[in-house]
Model the fold of this input.
Amino acid sequence: MKVVLRRYYYFFFLFFLWTGCAATPYRPLQLQNAACPEIFPAHSFEAVQEIEIKSAASGKNKFIGAVKVDPASDVIHAVLMSTEGVVLLEAELNEATLRVISVVPPLDKNYFVTNLMADVAFVMLKPKGEPSEKGLNEDGMACCRWRGDSGLLTEAAAAKDGMMRLRHYDAQLRVAKEAWYAPPYKNNMPAKIRMQSFRPVKYSIEIIPLEAE
Amino acid sequence: MKNILRFMTAAFVIMSFTNVLLASDLEKLKKAAADIRTLSADFIQEKHLKILVKPIVSKGKIYFKAPRDIRWEYMTPVKSLTLMNMSGARVYIWSEGKWLLDRAQSSARGIVMDEINNWFAGRFEGNPAFEYRFQPGPAPQIIMTPREGVDKFISRIVLKLSARTYRIASVEIYEIAENMTRITFRNEKVNTDISDSIFTKP
Done:
């Protein structure tokens, strides 16, 4: 009996762990002319953040990040530092053009800078242009979608308790990346941002703003 | 011709005078360093980034025990800790209410901590990573210029010394990308008893 109970326990434990980690799939919107959730600051801003990156390959790593974002011109200048303030990489993303100002090995390998700047742009920049879809999602919350190049779909949705959610769906409409923005907002920055990448590589980034202007 | 001779004589006198000062002040520095058995201090670190209007200010505490033990701890805004002792360097990050060993950073940090150890011990000669120049005067300082390799990231390091004690009062690190770090030491306590566990336990 005990063995059976233990098996059930492990089954439910793994099930809840799996469902807790998995993102809900793509579902069509109930289209209507709803206002889009305002996740992104409309004006230029700079911020300093505590960043924790978790992955199966490298475990848990902590950094300090600084960003200067100009949404009008789609320019992001980002600096990633060790917790002691040593600059590990500095780069500028101007629309699709990446300029690496400095990078310390081994971060110069395996497209780390390109992928990190793509994550910063995903989390900090509003998708370009007008949304292709506006409406309510399966939870009845305001949701907008932008269809980008190569079939990539970006979705911004309001969620319960003042949370906001941002998603990237790949060409097969699978969730590739998801970011949750937790209130309260101060100087247009949420108290916490948690980004999770599901594919092609699994990792998560937790961002806690320290200062924002 | 007379003018050239006068200029050369004056230059020779100034250079000789500077050399005398340089040698004696360097001796003072080495003597001050040799007298340190233990040292503890608070520090304030200002990180000036070109993209930010205001610097990022961090605060922490440093402990040193000759010949090699160092505890370098950041309290705010992000807690982190480096312990250096005879068995090497260990880096810890503060996560979910406890210290977590960061193995990836620990090995590289040993090199940095050895460099800091050299500064506290007044050892500047024979450094493979930096050339140094001593600048005497009322605000004496050591200017360290990186050799090949480090010069891709750092343009110079300036150690500012206290004119009274000849101990390091602040460190300025100038990076290639126009960013700068200034670490200022305060509330120094020299040769007090510091438990060995400070350097071994997070």
